[in-house]
Design goal:
Alpha-Beta Plaits; five-stranded antiparallel sheet; 5 strands
Length: 194
């Protein structure tokens, strides 16, 4: 007898008459179905929870790595901040307060006079307010030799206060003298901002 003949004789209403191999297969299929349904209904929710937990773990690891990098670099960052604060403090010391600006203007004219320059125009402009400082543009026109003008600009760079030379124009005159038009900038510190 073949298994096909046994299968034809199976009466679904009489399981006690089923052949042994059919009982084993039916039990196996039933167990597989039970396992699959249990897995699908019981574990599927936990699988999605596991997936979201893994994503959260990845995000936390990335956040940890960023914070770890910050902590590792913290001593260097603190050192750099100390250096920047010292540099800023040194630069702020070079900025005159508003009461020192008139004496700085006198120092500029004295530097030009020491170099033998003739001041044609010396015109301080209106202050321009910035975040914590104010800039004071000064329009200066001087006459002298090229070397006198160059030495004057060098003297401005050596001043204890910050004086910058912005726009500059040179022209020669009839008397072998050079005429220089300079836009100087000096700055004053605003301790409270504006």
């Amino acid at each position: 007898m073949s298994w096909q003949d046994d299968l034809k004789r199976v009466d679904m209403n009489q399981p006690s008459d089923w052949p042994a191999w059919f009982i084993v297969i039916t039990a196996f299929v039933g167990c597989l179905t039970l396992v699959f349904l249990s897995w699908y209904f019981l574990l599927e929710g936990q699988r999605s929870s596991l997936a979201s937990s893994r994503n959260a773990e990845i995000e936390l690891k990335q956040s940890f790595d960023v914070k770890k990098g910050m902590v590792v670099n913290l001593p260097a960052y603190k050192k750099q901040m100390t250096e920047i604060e010292a540099l800023l403090s040194a630069m702020l010391e070079k900025l005159p307060d508003s009461s020192e600006v008139p004496s700085l203007l006198v120092n500029i004219t004295e530097a030009g006079a020491r170099r033998g320059l003739e001041f044609v125009v010396f015109d301080p402009q209106s202050q321009v307010l910035e975040t914590f400082y104010a800039s004071l543009p000064i329009l200066v026109e001087v006459k002298g030799s090229y070397h006198q003008i160059a030495n004057f600009i060098s003297d401005l760079a050596q001043m204890p206060r910050i004086v910058t030379v912005g726009e500059m124009g040179l022209s020669s005159g009839d008397d072998n003298r050079v005429s220089a038009s300079l836009m100087l900038q000096t700055y004053s510190y605003l301790p409270d901002g504006f």
